């Protein structure tokens, strides 16, 4: 892993963008793996305000809630449209279908998308418990795309986005850890002291399924972009 320390989230977005820009200029970016949440927003802002043309690039997202239509404001389809796609068109945008009737078939479809569109660069955030995508602690490292049950803490954290508790999704479709590991290059972003313990476990503890992100220790090309707070517990300063 290459650890890149930055001043703040804005600088982190600039650093990640420079990696993407370099790959595009070398014609090495055909498929870009994307994430949701607040962590990658500074990167997406850099992409939006750049002169880069993504119309020949395919995007593939990590996950989507089960049961939410694409037009629902809490769906990841909606998030990506609002935060990136409506400003920067891509050749094709792939996300899991949250309304798929047959979960097994949808997971198989997504694995086929990944097989036919190998990801050149995958963007990741990390949860406070070390999760990547919706791969929570205990997820096997050989996992592929699957329907996952959200943890009670995740459901509780998401409740603020919905009018009623019963509206909060309880399941999601997520790329598995092995799916993520197939990416040629990975950029993991982490900001703030709330992520410090997860970053320490990912980098300095032995790879184990209690910290899903620690699987990245076995990947040949990972850039970990962290601010000072997220890196505060690392022994190597």
TrEMBL record:
Catalyzes the reversible isomerization-deamination of glucosamine 6-phosphate (GlcN6P) to form fructose 6-phosphate (Fru6P) and ammonium ion. One of its GO terms (cellular component) is cytoplasm. Residues 18-219 form the Glucosamine/galactosamine-6-phosphate isomerase domain. Its EC number is 3.5.99.6. Keywords: Carbohydrate metabolism, Hydrolase. One of its GO terms (biological process) is glucosamine catabolic process. It is an enzyme of class 3 (hydrolase). Gene3D superfamilies: 3.40.50.1360. It comes from Vagococcus entomophilus. InterPro entries: Glc/Gal-6P_isomerase, Glucosamine6P_isomerase, Glucosamine6P_isomerase_CS, NagB/RpiA_transferase-like. NCBIfam families: nagB. One of its GO terms (molecular function) is identical protein binding. SUPFAM superfamilies: NagB/RpiA/CoA transferase-like. Pathway: Amino-sugar metabolism; N-acetylneuraminate degradation; D-fructose 6-phosphate from N-acetylneuraminate: step 5/5. The active site is at residues 63, 129, 131, 136. It catalyses: alpha-D-glucosamine 6-phosphate + H2O = beta-D-fructose 6-phosphate + NH4(+). Belongs to the glucosamine/galactosamine-6-phosphate isomerase family. NagB subfamily. This is Glucosamine-6-phosphate deaminase. HAMAP family: GlcN6P_deamin.
């Amino acid at each position: 892993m290459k650890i890149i320390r930055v001043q703040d989230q804005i600088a982190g977005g600039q650093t990640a963008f420079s990696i993407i820009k370099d790959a595009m200029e070398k014609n090495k970016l055909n498929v870009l793996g994307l994430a949701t949440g607040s962590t990658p927003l500074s990167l997406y802002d850099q992409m939006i305000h750049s002169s880069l043309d993504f119309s020949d690039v395919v995007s593939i997202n990590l996950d989507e809630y089960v049961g939410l239509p694409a037009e629902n404001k809490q769906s990841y389809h909606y998030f990506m449209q609002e935060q990136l796609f409506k400003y920067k068109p891509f050749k094709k945008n792939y996300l899991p279908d949250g309304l798929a009737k047959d979960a097994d078939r949808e997971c198989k479809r997504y694995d086929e998308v990944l097989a036919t569109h190998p990801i050149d660069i995958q963007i990741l955030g990390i949860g406070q418990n070390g999760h990547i995508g919706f791969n929570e602690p205990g997820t096997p490292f050989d996992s592929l795309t699957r329907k996952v049950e959200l943890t009670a803490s995740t459901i509780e954290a998401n409740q603020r986005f919905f009018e009623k508790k019963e509206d909060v999704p309880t399941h999601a479709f997520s790329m598995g850890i092995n799916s993520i590991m197939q990416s040629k290059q990975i950029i993991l972003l982490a900001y703030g002291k709330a992520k410090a313990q997860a970053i320490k476990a990912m980098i300095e503890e032995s790879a184990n399924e209690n910290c899903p992100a620690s699987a990245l220790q076995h990947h040949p090309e990972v850039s970990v972009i962290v601010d000072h707070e997220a890196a505060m517990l690392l022994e190597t300063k």
